[in-house]
Write a structure and sequence with these properties.
Layout lengths: L13 H16 L9 H11 L2 H14 L3 H33 L1 H7 L9 H15 L8
Helix pairs in contact: 1-3, 3-4, 4-5, 4-6, 5-6
Pfam family, one: DUF6869
Protein name: DUF6869 domain-containing protein
InterPro entries: DUF6869 (IPR049221)
């Protein structure tokens, strides 16, 4: 059963989304300056309860705030895989466009696994991965 959209995400402005993404990445890194929180759980809830437009904003903010390949892999294996698994038909074109414009985003695509994506969307993701790295990315997982 799919969870309903939680409209509380609508209250976040651009600065809130940026701070949310930075806090999540800091927690993932084990940053001692990161407040003891449950950002990881909040991101999982966002994946299931926020509108895809909000998930997309979070993904772009997280990529912009990323500082390492580990950060990019966390974004790829979490929020982006979820967005493409649940809303792939409506979002693959945006992913392709962002990948063409943003080298950091293009690099992040290399960490995406098939997960719940339909085959035709996964084929498009693999083309993005091949364009960025010269090889295909991870196998389905």
């Amino acid at each position: 059963m799919e969870m309903p959209i939680d409209h509380r995400w609508n209250a976040l402005n651009d600065l809130d989304w940026e701070a949310f993404a930075r806090a999540w990445l800091a927690e993932l890194r084990g940053d001692p300056e990161s407040p003891d929180s449950e950002m990881g759980q909040t991101v999982v809830m966002m994946n299931f309860t926020a509108a895809p437009e909000h998930q997309w904003k979070f993904i772009r903010c997280a990529v912009a705030a990323s500082e390492s390949d580990d950060d990019l892999n966390s974004i790829a294996a979490g929020p982006l895989e979820h967005l493409l698994g649940k809303h792939s038909e409506n979002w693959i074109e945006a992913v392709e466009d962002q990948s063409a414009r943003d080298p950091k985003f293009a690099k992040m695509i290399g960490g995406v696994w098939k997960s719940m994506m339909p085959d035709k969307v996964w084929d498009r993701v693999q083309k993005l991965q091949a364009r960025d790295t010269g090889t295909s990315g991870p196998e389905s997982g």
